[in-house]
Specification:
It holds the Pfam family Thiolase_C_1. This protein folds into two domains: about 10-115 and about 215-225, Peroxisomal Thiolase, Chain A, domain 1; about 120-210 and about 235-380, Thiolase/Chalcone synthase (Peroxisomal Thiolase, Chain A, domain 1). Helix content is about 35%, strand content about 20%. It has helices at about 30-45, 65-70, 90-100, 120-125, 130-135, 145-160, 165-175, 190-195, 255-265, 285-295, 300-310, 320-325, 330-345; strands at about 10-20, 50-55, 80, 105-115, 200, 205, 215-225, 235-240, 275-280, 360-365, 370-380. A hairpin with a 4-residue loop joins strand 10 and strand 11.
Length: about 375
C-alpha cells in the first residue's frame, strides 16, 4: 500500500443533475436515479458493474439506500446510508475508498440529493434533531439563519470585518457562477447589489443565505484496474473529526483546525500547492472559517485571504458555490466534490482552472443548536 494509504482506488466520474429553484415532477428517488444514469454515462460503466451504493438524502424517506438499490436494479455487496448533511459527501467517500481497498466492492456509486416541497423544508428545519425540535422550535428562532447571524457578528467583531468583506466573497462566487451553465443564480452581482439586498438576520442579507433548491449529485469510485477513462482522480489525503468541542466553543473554529496538519502531512503538500478549493459555503463566514482552519491564512490576515479569493488568485468554489448554485439538501455535501472532480478532469468549460492538478474539498454541517458538529476534508489529485 502506498504511503498515503489511498492506493488502488480511482474516482472515475462526478455528475450533477442541474439544480432547480422549484420542485420538478417526480420524487427524490427519481431524482437520484437520474443522477445515477448520468454517472453511468460519464464513467462508461453499466448498472451490472455497480456492486456498491451509498446514499445521502433528507427526503428519500421512508425509503433507504437498499430501497433505492432495488429500484435501480442493483444487487450491491456494500450499501450505506449517510445522514451527515454538509459532511456527507466526504464521509461517504472515506467509507467507499476503504470498502474497495478491502475487497467489499469493486465499483461504488455514491448519490446524494433532495427535492423539497415547501412543507418538506419546513419539517426538516423544525425537526432537524431532537435539540432543535425540543428547544429551538418553540422559540420560533427561524432556523439556521439566526444562528449563523450571531456567529457572523462574533466573527466580524473578532477580526474587524465589515459586511463588504463578506460580500466580496459572495460577488467572487457569483462571477464563477456566471461561467457555470448549471448554476441557478448567474446574473451579475456587484458589491453594491450585495449591500443593498434586504437583511434576513442582521448582519446576514439575502445573498449571505444559501438558497434552497432541488437537485442531485453523484460520484463513482472504482478499483484502479477497472477504470475506463483516461483521466481520473485519486484521493491523496482525507481527514474527518466530528463533535470536537461538544458545542462548548464559539463556533469560529471548525474541527478542521485539529486535523489540518495531519491532512497536509498525509498529502505531502501544503495549502500553497493547491490549485483550487471547494469549501462548504452555507454562509460566507463558514467559508472563511474553514479556509483559515485549513491554513490558507497562515499569518492571520483574513482580509488578504479575501482579496485572493475576490481576485480569483485563489480559486474558491469555482462552480459558484452553494451561495449561487443553490443548496439541494444533502446534495450540498457532494456538490463541492463534484466540482473539484470536474475541474481536475478538465471538464469545467469556461470556468476551467488552468492546469488544475490538486484540489482540496471540505465539508461542514449538522448543526446541533449553535453550529456544525461535523467537518472533514479531502485532498484530490489528477492522475
Amino acid at each position: 500500500m502506498s504511503s498515503n494509504g489511498f492506493d488502488r482506488v480511482l474516482i472515475a466520474a462526478g455528475v450533477e443533475v442541474p439544480y432547480r429553484r422549484q420542485p420538478t415532477h417526480g420524487s427524490t428517488g427519481e431524482l437520484l436515479a437520474q443522477a445515477f444514469g448520468l454517472l453511468l454515462a460519464q464513467s462508461g460503466f453499466s448498472a451490472k458493474d455497480i456492486d456498491g451504493l451509498g446514499v445521502a438524502s433528507f427526503t428519500l424517506g421512508p425509503d433507504h439506500a437498499i430501497d433505492l438499490a432495488w429500484r435501480l436494479g442493483l444487487s450491491p455487496r456494500w450499501c450505506m446510508d449517510d445522514c451527515h448533511g454538509g459532511a456527507s459527501g466526504i464521509n461517504l467517500l472515506q467509507h467507499a475508498v476503504r470498502a474497495i481497498q478491502h475487497g467489499d466492492a469493486n465499483v461504488i456509486a455514491l448519490v446524494s440529493g433532495d427535492q423539497f416541497q415547501a412543507s418538506d423544508f419546513t419539517h426538516l428545519v423544525e425537526n432537524y434533531n431532537l435539540t432543535t425540535r425540543t428547544w429551538l422550535r418553540p422559540l420560533q428562532n427561524g432556523g439556521p439563519n439566526s444562528v449563523f447571524a450571531m456567529l457572523t457578528q462574533r466573527h466580524a467583531k473578532r477580526h474587524g470585518l465589515t459586511r463588504a468583506d463578506y460580500g466580496a466573497m459572495c460577488v467572487a462566487q457569483r462571477e464563477w457562477a456566471a461561467m457555470n451553465p448549471n448554476a441557478v443564480y448567474r446574473a451579475p452581482m456587484s458589491i453594491d447589489d450585495y449591500l443593498a439586498a434586504p437583511l434576513v438576520a442582521d448582519p446576514l442579507g439575502r445573498f449571505d443565505c444559501v438558497p434552497v433548491v432541488n437537485g442531485a449529485n453523484a460520484i463513482l469510485l472504482t478499483r484502479d484496474d477497472l477504470a475506463h477513462n483516461a483521466t481520473n482522480v485519486r484521493v491523496r489525503a482525507l481527514k474527518c473529526l466530528y463533535n470536537a468541542d461538544h458545542q462548548a466553543g464559539d463556533g469560529l473554529e471548525t474541527s478542521l483546525k485539529h486535523v489540518a496538519a495531519d491532512l497536509w502531512r498525509q498529502a505531502g503538500i501544503g495549502p500553497e500547492d493547491i490549485d483550487l478549493a471547494s469549501v462548504y459555503d452555507d454562509y460566507p463566514v463558514m467559508t472563511i472559517a474553514q479556509l483559515c482552519d485549513l491554513g490558507f491564512a497562515p499569518d492571520g490576515d483574513i482580509r488578504a485571504l479575501i482579496r485572493r479569493i475576490a481576485s480569483h488568485a485563489l480559486p474558491v468554489n469555482t462552480s459558484g458555490g452553494q451561495l449561487s448554485v443553490g443548496q439541494a439538501g444533502a446534495a450540498g455535501g457532494m456538490h463541492g466534490l463534484v466540482e473539484a472532480i470536474t475541474q481536475l478532469q478538465g471538464k469545467a468549460g469556461e470556468r476551467q482552472v488552468d492546469n488544475a492538478k490538486l484540489a482540496v474539498v471540505s465539508g461542514y454541517g449538522m448543526v446541533e443548536y449553535r453550529f456544525g458538529m461535523c467537518a472533514n476534508a479531502v485532498v484530490l489529485e489528477r492522475t
